[in-house]
Amino acid sequence: MRTTSGLSLGTTTALAICLAAPHAAMSADTNGNYALRGVGSASCNTYTEALENDTTRAQAYIAWMAGYITARNRTGAETFDVLPLISGADVAGLMRVVCLQNSDTSFEGAVDAALNLFYPARVKEDSPLLQLEHDGRQISIRVATLAQVQAALSKKGLYSSSIDGAYGPSTRTAIQEFQKSRKLNETGLPDADTLVALLLAE
């Protein structure tokens, strides 16, 4: 099943699970409490409603989320970028799926849980952006993330070339084989669905 954002519900089910697990706040008072400001204190339901009905309001959530992610990048140990997803539309779509499955959760709690789940796939050092294109589709991805994709595909026996973060025919073919095995769109690109299915599984 696909959402209107292009992300499939099947590849993001793990995000719903992570919301049920307790997680440690990065900082809080002695009782673990902290103040929520802005739209982060609203429920996930209001975010999905804004995406569907009010573009101006939705932009407030997206801007808040960009600031939250930037703060996590700044304060996280060994972290250049906590998310492997670059496109704002992909990040917004990812949070739409999470919020559809957890409508009563605070928007901040949902974003925090998603970032915690993605933490192992974070980009640890400054890494240049690549613009990849295949069959008329384009995506942006960091070299370090593409190298993670190659390493994960290698572990699955789908890729045997160099793990160098370069996009060539062997990388594209391996991605297509993985996408076919997971019944994803066979784009040959490390798109949002592919990153979620491949890197979160790792």
Give a quick set of tags describing it:
202 residues; mainly alpha; Muramoyl-pentapeptide Carboxypeptidase, domain 1; 2 domains; two-stranded antiparallel sheet; 49% helix; 6% strand; globular; disordered N terminus
Topology:
Elements (H helix, E strand, L loop, with lengths): L12 H8 L23 H10 L1 H21 L12 H14 L5 H12 L10 E6 L2 E6 H13 L13 H13 L10 H8 L3
Antiparallel strand pairs: 1-2
Explain this structure.
The protein is 49% helix and 6% strand. α1 (13-20) packs across α5 (107-118) and α2 (44-53) packs across α4. The protein is built from eight helices and two strands; from the N terminus they run αααααββααα. The two termini are 23 Å apart. A hairpin with a 2-residue loop joins β1 and β2. It has a two-stranded antiparallel sheet with strand order 1-2. The model is unreliable at 1-5 (pLDDT under 50). By secondary structure, it is mainly alpha-helical. The chain folds into two domains: 10-121, no CATH class; 129-199, Muramoyl-pentapeptide Carboxypeptidase, domain 1, CATH 1.10.101. It has helices spanning 13-20, 44-53, 55-75, 88-101, 107-118, 143-155, 169-181, 192-199; strands at residues 129-134, 137-142.
Indicate the mean pLDDT.
Answer: 88
| Secondary structural class | mainly alpha
SSE ordering: HHHHHEEHHH
Low-pLDDT ranges: 1-5
Radius of gyration: 17 Å
The overall strand count is 2
User: Which bin fits the share of residues in helices?
Assistant: 40-55%
Number of helices: 8
How many domains comprise the coordinates?
2
Strand order of the largest sheet: 1-2
The share of residues in extended strands comes to 5-15%
